[in-house]
Design goal:
Number of domains: 2
Largest sheet: 3 strands, parallel
CATH superfamily of the largest domain: HUPs
Structural class: mainly alpha
Order of helices and strands: EHEHHEHHHHEHEHHHHH
CATH class of the largest domain: Alpha Beta
CATH architecture of the largest domain: 3-Layer(aba) Sandwich
Helix content: 40-55%
Number of helices: 13
Low-confidence stretches: none
Oligomer: single chain
Shape: globular
Distance between the termini: 20 Å
Length: about 350
């Protein structure tokens, strides 16, 4: 077992990864590979909470996300990319943790409420939909991580996880309710209380200028888009500005994108100054420069993705290797949790392949 600190984060396979995923979480994952043991879950069972009638699509999205992660710089030799559905300890911990959370507390989760609204689920969602909020706590705590790289919108989900860790440690491990989060393991707790590691850009607005970037809202720039597709999407960003001599809002979505994706800070400052003064700099010119900067960033990602495009066997091997490493940790965690909660009657060994 490595003595490096461990992190856990991941993605539900609902489609391709986009620039919002990159700046919100994946860029941070790539950076942490050098200093942490990294486990990245593909939460394919969670995808069934709203798309159980489309298993084929979920499977394709699952393989596609692995390709996207590798393209973005996640190294399967240094990080474990694994399948939620092939780590049985997660399901067992989900059931146990569900006993520690009042139903009303789960339903107060703001991220859950937002998803019900955005996906127009009304009151037709399955019982499994709110259960997935509990399942996420098991996804994380099964690996006893110290941190979780997440986008800003996922912080409420992580707070639920932190509550579960505290409650378990207090109820079954004798950790006092006054013990600070960072000291729970030292005081005998099974689970560390993990912290959120939010990327530099916690929430990237989509090209519509209003909503968070999302495939379902048709406002996303995908990391697998061609250079022409990227530029075409950037050209759609609406600012309401009528002419190059009209002073523009230096905080609008176009300027935000410049700050995030144009690497030269001096050039960004120059663009924003001219833009705010209406100093004869047009939106079209800025969009061309922005599109070029994004394409320069994406080009090596496209090349890496092309190397495994259509190669399902390589993707499956990546998942199989990562899942084997994940099961070793998760089974250890489950044994510790069962022992603490009085469920550890005898040791077991699973042959997980």
């Amino acid at each position: 077992m490595s003595e490096r600190p461990r992190i856990l984060t991941g993605d539900t396979p609902t489609g391709k990864l986009h620039l919002g995923h990159w700046v919100g979480s994946v860029k941070r994952r790539v950076e942490l590979q050098d200093s942490h043991d990294c486990f990245f879950i593909i939460a394919n069972m969670h995808a069934f909470t709203t798309r159980s009638d489309k298993p084929g699509e979920i499977r394709e999205d699952t393989l596609g996300i692995v390709r996207d992660l590798v393209a973005m710089g996640v190294d399967p030799e240094r990080s474990a990319i694994f399948l939620q559905s092939e780590v049985p300890a997660i399901a067992e911990l989900t059931f146990l943790f569900a006993m520690l959370l009042p139903y009303n507390r789960v339903m107060r989760n703001p991220t859950l409420k937002d998803e019900i609204k955005v996906k127009n689920l009304g009151d037709t969602y399955s019982f499994g939909f709110p259960l997935y909020a509990v399942g996420q706590t098991a996804d994380i705590l099964a690996f006893r991580p110290v941190g979780v790289p997440v986008g800003e919108d996922q912080v409420p989900h992580l707070e639920l996880t932190r509550e579960v860790a505290r409650r378990f440690n207090q109820m079954y491990c004798g950790v006092g309710d006054k013990v600070e989060d960072d000291h729970h393991v030292a005081e005998g707790g099974v689970f560390p209380v993990p912290r959120a590691d939010v990327g530099r850009v916690g929430r990237l607005v989509g090209i519509d200028g209003d909503n968070k970037m999302s495939k379902s809202l048709n406002n996303a720039v995908f990391i697998s888009d061609t250079a022409k597709q990227v530029q075409k999407k950037i050209n759609k960003i609406y600012t309401g500005r009528q002419s190059p001599t009209e002073p523009g809002d230096p905080n609008n979505v176009l300027m935000q994108y410049c700050e995030i994706f144009i690497p030269d800070a001096d050039r960004v400052a120059e663009i924003k100054d001219q833009y705010a003064r209406g100093a004869d700099i047009g939106d079209g010119h800025i969009k061309q420069e922005l599109g070029a900067a994004i394409n320069e960033m994406l080009e090596p990602m496209r090349e890496r993705r092309a190397g495994i495009e259509g190669d399902d066997a390589t993707v499956i091997d990546i998942l199989k290797s990562g899942t084997s490493r994940a099961n070793a940790i998760a089974e250890e965690t489950l044994e510790m949790a069962k022992e603490a909660s009085g469920l550890g009657y005898f040791k077991r060994r699973l042959d997980l392949g």
